[in-house]
Structure formats: C-alpha cells, structure tokens
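Tokens as discussed.
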C-alpha cells in the first residue's frame, strides 16, 4: 500500500472514532485555555513575533556563517562536533560512540530529532537499552508507540488509558492517579539516570556567539540525563541555530507561550561543554551531531525555505482542524500537522509524502498562530503545485480538475448544465472521497447569474 493510500485509510478510520475525538478535544481545549492566558501576558505579541521572524530570516541568509561560528566556539572547549548529512551517517556516528564507551544504558531527554533518526532502535540493535525520560515520551515508549505530537507525545491518551497501560506493564493499581503514576515513573528513572553510561539530548536552540546548546523542558529530565552519564551526545538539526545568547530573552517566552501557555518553561539549560577539572557534576565527554537529513533540500527551495525558521512549539498542530480530526499517527512521519506537511516531502521525498501537503483546508489558522510567521499555507500550495508538476497526483484527479476548469472558468459553463446533471455528477462523492458520514452540498435549480437576471427582469 502506498503512503498516500495508507494515509487515506488511516484518516477514514480515525476521523469518526468518538473516543479519540473526545480525548483530543479535551486535551487541546486545556492547551487553548493555557495559551490564551500566555498570550494575555504580552503587551504586544505581534511585535515579538515580528522580531523573532526577522532574526530567523537573517539566520537563513547567513546560515553557513553562524553554524561555523558555533562549531569553532564550542570545539575550543573540548566538544567534538560531527556533521551528519543524513540519518544513516548520524546512526553510524552513534553506533561508534556506543561501542567506544561500552554503553549498556542510555537515557534520553525529549527530542524529535532523535525520533527522526530512530535513535532508540539503533541503541537497542547495539545491545544498549535506551530509556525515554520525558514522562510523555516514557508513556508512548512503554506502549510501543511513537510521539503523537511534537510537544505533547501522549496527547492521544487519557489518564485512564495510561493507568491501564501501567497496570499491564508494571502491575501498578488500575485506579492510580496521575500523581501516583508520575511518582512511580520518577522512581524508575532515578535508577536509570545514575547508572547510564550515555545521556542524549536534542537542542531547542544552538547559540552561535557562545557555542551553547539550549535545552528547555518542564520536568528536569534534561538536566538529570546529562548530570550522571560520562558521555553527553547532542543531536540537533542544523536549522536550530540563532546568532546570540541575548536573543533567548525573546525566544524563550515565545516558545513557552505558544507551546504550553507558560510564561517561561520550567527548566532552561545552556550546555557549553563537558565537565571541567574543578567541577563535580556533568559529563566527561560531549559530542554534538549536527544533522542535515534533507534540511538543505528545504533551504534550496525558494518557496519552502522559510519553514526552517520553525521553533517546534506545536502551535500549528493544535490550531489545525485537520490534525485535530485525524490525529498525529495518520501522518506516519516524525513531524505531523501543518509544519510536518510542509517539511516531510523534502525530508523524505515528494514521491511518497507529497499527499501530506493536500491534508489541509488552507484556513490559515496555522499562519495566524505561528510565532515566527512562517507562511505555511503558501508553502502548502507551492508543494501541491510541485506534486502536480512531478506527475504525482492520480490520473482521475487530473481529469476531474480539467472538467471542473472547463465548466467553471466561464459563467456559461455553469449555466449550460441543468442542476440535476450537476447533482448527479457530485452524488457519488457521498460514498467515495468525501465520505458516507457527510453530505455533498447540492446545486440550486438556477445558478446565481440566472437568479440575478430573473430578478432584474
């Protein structure tokens, strides 16, 4: 089955799942309430977004300069910087590091980039246990699933679902409260932190002027994942670079407000190197893997390159009516929702994933909520055009569009065909494509122009 057909089938199966819909509606409603409060703290949120967007565009104009500056500064402090052109090269680096450090246990802070290169699978294949330490990531790992959402990995699960999962996997009481389940996970992870040979984080921002890696999180798991292991591996997409540390004062609140509604994320850590001789905590060695994996393909496209400004706040997912209907797993990609629909064709190929750019109503909500003003709907449209130009759309769709163009490009085309013929032509869509749980709109007996002419007469 092609990715496109799989997407259609999965979307059809989940769209009218009442339990799933209610869980997502409840969780996103809580997000909406929190974000409304977060936005209210700003005197002028549009000014902040405009400034953030300008910084990220300036970065893209000088991308090479800032990345090399970052590498130079952090390397001078004893950090090894590795450049990975794709997931395979990143994986080879990780395999070598695990062997060199005789790693049997790895603790990992929340990171979508590690999901992108399937780090957990690589570690397990090498005989190294990989443990997710973010609570949401831990839950989906125990369930044998992948993150459902960029920011909220277990958004699709209710507290009852999680209590049942923990009861099956760990024998905890079926009626455990969220607090009790959290405490159980905390005790499990404490033992993992103190015995792991390797700690892995991603990066919310790479800071060029100080050669720093900024990690933001709400549970302290990022700090714990790097405090005890002897080796700290950072895996970061090359688009995460920003020019100066002082700009975090702008980006931290924007990320927090749009991601969770907070004034600022609870833990904001800047890593600048391994432990020094006069320090008692932290890793002995630190390695940064800078990942391309298709990002330069995005950068080379004059219409899509602005999507690299994304700070992964997840706001576009939470605002998207399509995401809220079909959920995160239907996309079958690391990055879902509007930003995933824009990026994935470049990261994983238009042939298999161009259909994602058609999974949008183009309502513009994603553009409205984006903290760095990415023109997502414009890029979705340009991706659609590219898919058509590459002959990646179904032949029947081409015929239908040609027929619609012929009929609708001039008023006489609509007036020529009687309403019963138009309705006969659209009726089959009630049972295919449009779906049996919705009804196609019907055409009036007379077109607008015919009605208007009649009234004028």
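Sequence:
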């Amino acid at each position: 089955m092609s990715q496109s057909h799989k997407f259609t089938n999965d979307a059809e199966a989940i769209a009218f799942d009442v339990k799933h819909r209610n869980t997502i509606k409840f969780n996103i409603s809580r997000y909406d309430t929190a974000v409304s409060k977060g936005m209210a703290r700003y005197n002028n949120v549009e000014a902040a977004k405009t400034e953030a967007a300008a910084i990220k565009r300036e970065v893209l104009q000088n991308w090479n300069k800032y990345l090399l500056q970052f590498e130079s500064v952090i390397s001078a402090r004893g950090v090894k910087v590795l450049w990975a052109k794709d997931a395979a090269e990143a994986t080879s680096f990780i395999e070598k590091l695990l062997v060199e450090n005789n790693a049997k246990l790895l603790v990992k802070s929340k990171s979508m980039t590690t999901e992108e290169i399937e780090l957990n699978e690589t570690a397990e294949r090498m005989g190294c246990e990989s443990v997710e330490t973010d609570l949401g990531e831990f839950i989906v790992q125990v369930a044998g699933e992948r993150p459902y959402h960029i920011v909220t990995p277990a958004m699709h699960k209710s507290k009852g679902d999680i209590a049942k999962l923990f009861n099956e996997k760990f024998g905890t009481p079926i009626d455990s409260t969220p607090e009790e389940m959290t405490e159980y996970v905390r005790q499990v992870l404490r033992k993992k932190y103190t015995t792991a040979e390797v700690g892995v984080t991603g990066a919310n921002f790479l800071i060029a002027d100080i050669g720093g890696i900024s990690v933001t999180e709400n549970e302290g798991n990022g700090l714990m994942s790097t405090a005890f292991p002897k080796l700290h591996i950072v895996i970061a997409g090359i688009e995460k670079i920003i020019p100066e540390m002082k700009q975090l004062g702008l980006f931290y609140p924007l990320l927090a407000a749009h991601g969770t509604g907070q004034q600022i994320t609870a833990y904001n850590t800047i890593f600048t190197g391994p432990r020094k001789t006069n320090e008692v905590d932290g890793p002995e060695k630190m390695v940064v893997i800078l990942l391309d994996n298709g990002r330069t393909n995005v950068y080379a496209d004059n219409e899509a390159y602005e999507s690299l400004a994304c700070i992964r706040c997840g706001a576009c997912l939470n605002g998207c009516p399509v995401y809220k209907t079909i959920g995160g797993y239907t996309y079958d990609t690391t990055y879902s929702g509007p930003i995933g629909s824009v990026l994935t064709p470049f990261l994983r190929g238009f042939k298999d994933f161009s259909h994602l750019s058609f999974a949008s109503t183009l309502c513009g909500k994603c553009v409205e909520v984006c903290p760095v003003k990415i023109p997502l709907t414009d890029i979705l449209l340009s991706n659609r055009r590219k898919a058509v130009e590459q002959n990646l759309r179904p032949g029947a769709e081409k015929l239908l569009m040609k027929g619609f163009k012929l009929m609708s490009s001039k008023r006489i085309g609509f007036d020529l065909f009687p309403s019963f013929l138009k309705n006969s032509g659209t009726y089959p869509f009630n049972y295919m494509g449009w779906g049996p749980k919705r009804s196609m709109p019907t055409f009036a007996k007379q077109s607008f122009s015919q009605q208007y002419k009649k009234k004028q007469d």
